[in-house]
Design goal:
Blueprint (H helix, E strand, L loop, with lengths): L10 E6 L2 E6 L1 H13 L20 H16 L6 E5 L6 H16 L3 E5 H10 L9 H10 L2 E5 L8 H16 L3 E6 L13 H5 L1 H10 E5 L5 H13 L8 H4 L34
Parallel strand pairs: 3-6, 3-7, 4-5, 5-6
Antiparallel strand pairs: 1-2
Helix pairs in contact: 2-3, 4-5, 5-6, 6-8
This protein binds zinc ion.
Zinc ion (ZN) binds next to loops.
Length: 282
């Protein structure tokens, strides 16, 4: 369909102080936003997730929704990101993807969604022969996006390499004052020997960076997936299987014997200022 304003040229004339100037037509902005949305890596499962369709049941869910809306409204002035943490199935990823979409669509932001395990897998793949991309090429959009969603942080079995790689991502975005939105099933207890805590899984430095650069909300509520599972089990007369979260941590890690991150692509310069690990050092 041809645009009625510009008839397909993507430019329109505007008059400023009596002088006629050419500027990009609204339809061009729509094309750019549609392209950004298509490239944002939001999983198909969450393609229809919107802030307007998030139904909070608890105070913490209402607070999480309020902060997500506030983030979109004040972007790009708002540089502080958000950490939604707590038990699975309370809609953390719904909120994060809806926020990301709204920021791209309403504010023209460049934004990406990365499931943390998938991001680490992509970086690991660059170590394999036959993959031409360097780790920095893979990480460039992650480091440079206006808004980054890191989904399910902490689901990967931790290791020195995992901590260094995630630490590099978080620290680089912190230094560049770019907003990062995190969802995680990890806990943040005072007792820092808890194996499923931010402290143990990410390390002291990266946790404290996240505390500085994000507002944290512990999201509590009924596990929607458990509710569905139990409802389905009642229909079929079978007992539900154990939730995934009880078994995931017992799976063997994928990183055994993996060389440490070799993040020194000379073509890409980042001011890392990162003394928490060896990633990024020459
Ligand atoms: Zn137009």
């Amino acid at each position: 369909m041809t645009c009625e304003i510009c008839h397909g040229s993507r430019w329109k004339s505007v008059t400023v102080d009596g002088v006629e100037r050419m500027t990009r037509c609204d339809c061009w902005l729509d094309v750019v936003k549609a392209k950004s949305l298509a490239e944002s890596r939001i999983p198909p499962k969450f393609a229809k997730a919107e802030l307007a369709t998030y139904k909070p049941d608890t105070d913490s869910q209402r607070e999480a929704l309020r902060l997500a809306k506030k983030f979109v409204e004040s972007f790009p002035a708002e540089q502080k990101g958000l950490v939604f943490f707590g038990t699975p199935g309370v809609g953390k990823t719904h909120l994060a993807t809806a926020l990301l979409k709204a920021t791209i669509r309403d504010k023209g932001a460049r934004g990406y969604f990365f499931q943390t395990t998938e991001l680490l897998r992509l970086v690991r793949e660059t170590y394999n022969r036959g993959v031409d991309e360097t780790e920095m090429e893979v990480l460039k959009p992650v480091l440079e996006a206006d808004v980054l969603v890191l989904d399910d942080l902490g689901v990967e079995k931790t290791s020195e390499w995992v901590q260094e790689t995630l630490g590099l991502v978080i620290n680089t975005r912190y230094n560049a004052r770019r907003a990062t939105i995190v969802t995680s099933n990890l806990r943040d207890p005072i007792d820092n020997t808890d194996m499923n805590s931010f402290m143990v899984q990410l390390g002291v430095r990266t946790r404290s960076r996240l505390l500085e650069m994000c507002e944290w909300v512990e999201v509590q509520g009924a596990d929607i997936r458990d509710t569905e599972r139990i409802t389905n089990a009642a229909k079929t007369g079978q007992m539900p299987e154990a939730p995934e979260r009880l078994t995931k941590k017992n799976l063997p890690g994928k990183s055994g014997g993996m060389a440490r991150a070799r993040l020194k692509d000379p073509g890409v310069q980042y001011e890392l200022n990162w003394s928490g690990g060896k990633a990024g050092s020459k």
